[in-house]
Design goal:
3-stranded antiparallel β-sheet, elongated
Length: 103
Amino acid sequence: MNPKPFQQLDRVIHEKGRLPIMSLLAASAELSFNELKEQLNMTDGNLSVHIKTLQEAGFVSVTKSFQNRRPLTTVSLTSGGRKAFTNYIDLLEQIVRQAKDNK
């Protein structure tokens, strides 16, 4: 089995807490912090740390606003984040095909 695709997987995305965040955001224009928290069953602190890591990598943008006088934090993929996620999925597909071919 060729190890190269494994070595090319983006470690920022690959982490088990961040992959589901990226997956949900890839399917939505944006999600609120609370929507992500509820769908992923994460604590505020855990989700915040993962979002910050993704933001520092340039994969997500975070917008803070108010809705009905309450703070609202929304998260969305950046164009770079969408491209990185697509590349990540392409690599996973390559790994799966390679594994099937080696049976």
